[in-house]
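Hi R.,

Here's the chain you asked about this morning:
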Amino acid sequence: MAQLPAGIRFIISFSRDQWYRAFIFILTFLLYASFHLSRKPISIVKGELHKYCTAWDEADGRFSSQSAKSGSIAPRQLPDNETDCGWAPFDKNNYQQLLGALDYSFLCAYAVGMYLSGIIGERLPIRYYLTFGMLASGAFTALFGLGYFYNIHSFGFYVVTQVINGLVQTTGWPSVVTCLGNWFGKGRRGLIMGVWNSHTSVGNILGSLIAGYWVSTCWGLSFVVPGAIVAAMGIVCFLFLIEHPKDVRCSSTLLTHSKGSENGTNRLRLQKQILKTEKNRPLDPEMQCLLLSDGKGSIHPNHVVILPGDSGSGTAAISFTGALKIPGVIEFSLCLLFAKLVSYTFLFWLPLYITNVDHLDAKKAGELSTLFDVGGIFGGILAGVISDRLEKRASTCGLMLLLAAPTLYIFSTISKMGLEATIAMLLLSGALVSGPYALITTAVSADLGTHKSLKGNAHALSTVTAIIDGTGSVGAALGPLLAGLLSPSGWSNVFYMLMFADACALLI
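And here is the predicted structure, written out as tokens:
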């Protein structure tokens, strides 16, 4: 009998359960990466919505710059409602405040909607809820870009589009974290979620490259194409997402019901289980904290806890106030508020900062800004590995926040010295700024959502995740708004604000 090919031997070396978990890992990664892909275009297009203003100087017959250094730009024919300064109404001197208001409208709606999204998400099927959010987000992302094709210059149109898009995008985070939490336990959660959370940076990078491709020629496509991608991924979600291991009868989801122990008032739930065939083998750490149902197997007494029942109708979803009482939820929520303030200020304003400091066009500045997200990938993974090794999530966040503050100061100082210095500081700043943010929104949220005080109530994970990320989104809304208000007085003031926020996160 011929030996199996090496590729086939590799495939069959993994169990059915492992393939399912790998599939869910990759699918949820791609789903949320597409959300971030659709958020990035606005930061890339800012440099096109307001460009260096030029005026014809009849005295000497040449162009002179009104808002930046002079340039030798050839005159061009402009539509009646467009000026050399960019796209109305963002061509005025108060463009930074208007662009900041766009960011604030999206992020404020996102923060408010997140608190409601977690509660709603607990009570609806994840697959349907997430599919709806992705289709709606794709539609409103594309709608912003249609303003270019239909020559829309109403500031209210762009604000309303951003507000609705911010609301529907709140369906994403609680859904994907809950789904991933259903499939993976605590054994190597920091590492697994550190790698998984790189979807944020991957989405930002892809969004920057896609938006940058069209920004100088047809900025409307910088929104329409990402919107189409998000909507397409929503269809993929509807067709393929598996919410819980029990839905495909994975062996890791086995639950043994003890007859006579479930009386409608109390139920038995397994937090850990050792199968008969695996009694003498160490349990896979990724299967330790899965909530199990509908199977057969032996029960160890130490793996059984009794939960208050609800007359046999299933475990009730936790209330908002009940989630706040979980130890650590309030503290990490406030810490994330300041950490996300710093991260999202970079997300929305970094390309414009690079344009002003290094005098690059919008496309090149957008491409260069992706280095911050590249650093964020390594920072998130590093934070996860360290927190797993030390088994101290808070200490890991504190260490990275402590290093981030002086790094931001150095960034503001030496980034003006040239392109090479900017590249180096983008990578380092991305790692230190994104590390704590990634750890809190993933591993910490999942840990708190399955806290021992919940006695196995899986319905708390989405609500806890939404509270933590919703509070963080308040900071995400404030950061870009403050940057828009402070940047006219000098970018150094923006960095002082970021360093202060970083110090507040460290203190909390």
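One quick note: The two ends are 65 Å apart (CA to CA).

Cheers,
M.
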